[in-house]
Structures are given as structure tokens and as C-alpha cells.
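In the current project phase, we have settled on a layout for protein records. A sample record is reproduced below.
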Amino acid sequence: MHSAGASRGAKGCLRISAIGPKPGSMKLAPTTRGPLTLAVLSALLLIAVQSAWAQTLTTLYNFTGGADGGTPYSTLVLDKAGNLYGTTSAGGASGCGTVFEVAPNGAETTLYSFAGGTDGCNPWAGLVFDKKGNLYGTTQYGGNTAGCGGPACGTVYELTPSGGGWTEQVLYSFEGFLDPGIPTGNLILDKKGNLYGTTTSCEDGNACGSVFELKHSKGGWTEAVLFAFGCGDGCVPWAGLIFDAKGNLYGTTFSGEGGYGVAFELTPSGGGWTQTILQQGLQAFSTYAGLVFDKNGNLYGTTGSPGIVFELTPSEGGWTETILHNFAGYPNDGADPFADLVFDSKGNLYSTTFGGGTSDNGTVFELTPSEGGWTETILHNFAVSDGAAPWAAVVIGKKGILYGTTALGGSYDAGTVFALNPKKKK
């Protein structure tokens, strides 16, 4: 077990500036490939081609990168009417990103454009609804405090429907240093309406990210750092968190001892929280994605690159890691799975890969449990015209339809919102 007093800024802990693409910095896959790439391609062509179903993908909306936003990294959230909500990291009225809604018919509405000041800038994470229909999210930058190597350290905000529109309120601005900032993972709500999330800030001599809580009371919101990461206990928690039935928190870090990802648990104890490392050095890869539980209490996640899907099974004395799938990359498989996994009602897993596929612009895939292992099916290969570089997870709607975003591609190369029917065509 590790406490919040772990050493900070230790050797091997990656700074936030060293990881993750910045808004607008990504490039689409080149159309020409060198001798080394062609050699790899030749080797991959010897691999048995995976089964590929004929799917139906619909591009619901093409972002222009202008006032409507662009470069969405966020996972979508559905309301009861089937409307989709998410964020873009760029574009909008001030170029600092937006919160948007896409109706089932593809009509897009910009609910809020970030101005880049105290209201926040560059939202990476998705949104979460409370019981009253309010939306909560984070921005990487902006706010009313300076730090994090120069820019303000980000915010937690609320969007409230009012008078036919939405009103934004900043609930908290991160201060940096002992209150690390730059949040990228999705928020979660507990039963009392409190918010939990992670920050990624990793400046020299300061904490390598944190797990935080925002407590809701009649007088407002109070923030507390539940755990500050060093390096031996993980560094830079890029993804969000999940709860188990007992109220314990689970998550991952991008880096850690030796530079590889860590899976962890945080347990409330004695008025604080105690960290337990479930797996150190997740198959020697760095980790952007979070974790998901199955019905039996096993955990599932992904790492890259080119990446794996893994399972963590509780066993006497610890957790056992099993690799369910090794991604092979272009052209027959996906590569770089940065998104969370999601289960359907039948126990199948779905997600996206940022790269790989037939044109090296990313995929949507399914993993189906079968006797003796898991079988992967590529449901869709992105081809730029219908999107490229999907970073976010998919969400499952009615009739099993998968909804998601791509960070690039589409009509204006500014990303898309898509719907995909995973059922085989007859």
C-alpha cells in the first residue's frame, strides 16, 4: 500500500508536456509508406485476416472547426430522448472548445463556447448528467488561478438548462502545485451528488496528478485532494474513475515506476483514502484508458502501443493480469487503444483504436467471449471521409447502436459524431 506522502518528481515520472497530443496537433495517416513500413505490412499480410462484418456506420455530424467546435476527444452521453452530448477541445466562438448536443436526426446545437478565461478552455473529457438534468465536466486549462507551468490549471464546471438555453457555472478552479490541475478524465457522481475525478499535472518538484473530490453542500462546492501521485505509486492518471459496490475507487495512471502504467484502488479509511496498487507496469505499456467491471468483479482495460486488452482477476494475495487480445495494427487490426471499454448486456466488449485498420485511421472493435478465449471483430475501419483518429469510447444506445466521436476526419477534418449498428447485415 502507498500513502499520499510518496516522493514527488522522482526519476522516471513523465511530465504532462511529454504525453498526449495537443488540440490541433495530430496528423492523419500518410498515404505513402517507406520501405520499413512496407516490410511490416508484408509481414502483417501473412497473418490470418480477422473476420469483418458488413456494418452500417452513419456520420451524424461533421464538425467544421469553427463556431460549432472541432477535435472532439470526449465520450458521448445520451439522454432519455436519444440526444447525444459531448465536448470539443478546439473551435467555438473563441477557439477554446465547446459543449454540444447532437439530436438523433444529426442536428447539432452548440450549448456553450468556452471563452478561455475564468470559464475554462480546451475541454478534453466528456460529460455526466445528474438526476436533475444538469451537466458536469472539466476543462484542461483556464480558470481563475495561475500555475501548471504558466496557463491556468483548468476547471470543473456545471451547465444548467435555463430559459431555452444553458448557463455555465465554474464550480472549482485548480491551483496547481499541491492541488494539481489539467484534468482529462471523465467525472463520476456518487449517490450524494458529489463529484470525483483525476488531474494530470506533472511539473518538476510537484505532484504527478491527483484524485480529487468535489463535495456538494447548500453553500457551494468544496474540493479535496484524496490522493496525490508520486512515481512509485503511479504518475499522470489520464483516465477517469469507477466505483465498486462498496464505494472504493478504481483507476489507472499513464506512467509509473519504469515508465509504465499502473492500475490502482483507493479505499476510504480513517477519514482519508488508502491506495493499493493492483498491477504495476501493465504489460510494459503506458495507459490512457480507465477500467470497467464485469458482473463477477473482474476489471478490464487497454494499453498501447500497438496495444492490448487485458483482464485483472482478483485472487488470493492480489490480482492476476490476463491478456485477452494483442492488437496487430495496420492493415488487419487496430492500434493504440486509448479509449475505455464498454460491456453490452451479453458480456461483449466494445471500444475504439486511435490508429490501425485498413487505412491506419482507427477502428471500432468488438471482443466476444468464446470457449478458450476472446474473439475480436473489427466492426468498422475509418477512412478519413467518415472520420479518423477516434480517441473516445463508444456509448451503447437503444437497439445496441454504438455512438462515438472521431477527433479528426470527416468533411472538414475537424472530427465527427457517428452511429454504428454492430449487427451483421443479412
In short: The helical segments are 35-44. The radius of gyration is 20 Å. The longest helix spans residues 35-44. The domain at 50-421 is CATH 2.130.10.130 (Methylamine Dehydrogenase; Chain H).
